[in-house]
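2024-03-11 09:14:02 INFO worker-7 job=invfold-0412 stage=load source=structure_tokens
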């Protein structure tokens, strides 16, 4: 990478490049405004313009026009942020947009089919929140959304084939948002519960189901268990067990429809090199080649050629700038 990074947000731009932003550059927990771009053509990282605000614990969402919305997080003094900004891949510039009504971090931000972004929960006023908002890129406005049934933090939001949004993982029970036409419309519905897990890997599968794997359990123990949410039945099903318990791992959907999960850490302060593949049809995990470097809190992205880029993160030696590519 152009600079070391852990806890960054990373998204794939419309032309296949990868944008990574924020996080920490050394193991002090304080964020940086650094942004960098990976080119899959030249296999190199280069600096992009820095964000207007240093942040960690933020979200990054690719908008329908290809720009990237970054929201909230913790700032340079580890204070919760209300600021939001947009990156334009054409001009490679960041621009501040309307701030959130309340500062927040550890939220989720999901692009809706109509182009709005649904921001859910997070830590607001020092508490796990039920507050939700819509961001309208066309008018640069934040509009209240119906509050969630349960408070959420560090969760993921996944758009299902139906257009409904599944909120799962992190702190809070799973639930579903059912959009409706009009600003501020839509309702939340509870989803059958599954065991608590923070820092899991959450991946939408090719068949529209959602994989929830690894993480930390309710008593801070590393999990091997996995669950798959079926949008057809509305139920969670057991999906086998990882060979190695882990949290803060990264995952990526492979061209075959399998899922790669790699790295992460264990409560014993062991950082992992190991990697595993999940086969959704057979619901089994198979060990695959380990990474060269143990790392947690890394970034991962499936590139246009079907390989998986894994970069940054940290281990006991510090914050990393190294990258590896997995060939399925």
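2024-03-11 09:14:09 INFO worker-7 stage=emit residues=328
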């Amino acid at each position: 990478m152009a600079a070391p990074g852990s806890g960054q947000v990373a998204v794939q731009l419309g032309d296949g490049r990868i944008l990574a932003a924020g996080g920490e550059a050394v193991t002090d927990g304080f964020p940086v405004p650094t942004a960098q771009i990976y080119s899959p053509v030249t296999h190199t990282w280069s600096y992009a313009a820095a964000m207007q605000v240093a942040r960690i614990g933020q979200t990054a969402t690719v908008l329908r026009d290809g720009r990237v919305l970054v929201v909230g997080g913790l700032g340079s003094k580890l204070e919760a942020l209300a600021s939001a900004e947009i990156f334009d891949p054409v001009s490679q510039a960041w621009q501040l947009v309307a701030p959130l009504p309340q500062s927040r971090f550890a939220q989720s931000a999901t692009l809706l089919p109509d182009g709005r972004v649904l921001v859910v929960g997070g830590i607001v006023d020092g508490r796990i929140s039920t507050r939700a908002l819509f961001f309208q890129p066309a008018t640069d406005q934040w509009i209240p959304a119906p509050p969630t049934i349960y408070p959420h933090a560090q969760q993921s939001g996944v758009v299902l084939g139906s257009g409904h949004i599944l909120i799962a993982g992190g702190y809070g029970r799973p639930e579903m948002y059912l959009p409706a036409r009009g600003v501020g419309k839509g309702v939340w519905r509870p989803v059958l519960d599954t065991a608590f897990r923070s820092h899991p890997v959450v991946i939408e599968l090719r068949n529209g189901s959602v994989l929830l794997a690894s993480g930390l359990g309710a008593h801070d123990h590393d999990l091997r268990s996995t669950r798959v949410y079926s949008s057809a039945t509305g139920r969670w099903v057991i999906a086998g067990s990882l060979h190695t318990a882990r949290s803060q791992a990264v995952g990526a959907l492979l061209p075959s429809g399998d899922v790669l999960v790699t790295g992460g850490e264990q409560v014993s302060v062991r950082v992992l090199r190991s990697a595993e593949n999940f086969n959704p049809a057979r619901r089994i995990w198979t060990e695959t080649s380990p990474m060269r470097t143990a790392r947690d809190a890394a970034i991962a992205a499936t590139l246009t050629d079907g390989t998986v880029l894994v970069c940054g993160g940290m281990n006991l030696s510090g914050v990393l700038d190294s990258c590896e590519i997995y060939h399925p």
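2024-03-11 09:14:09 INFO worker-7 stage=report msg="The CA atoms of residues 98 and 139 lie 10 Å apart."
2024-03-11 09:14:10 INFO worker-7 job finished
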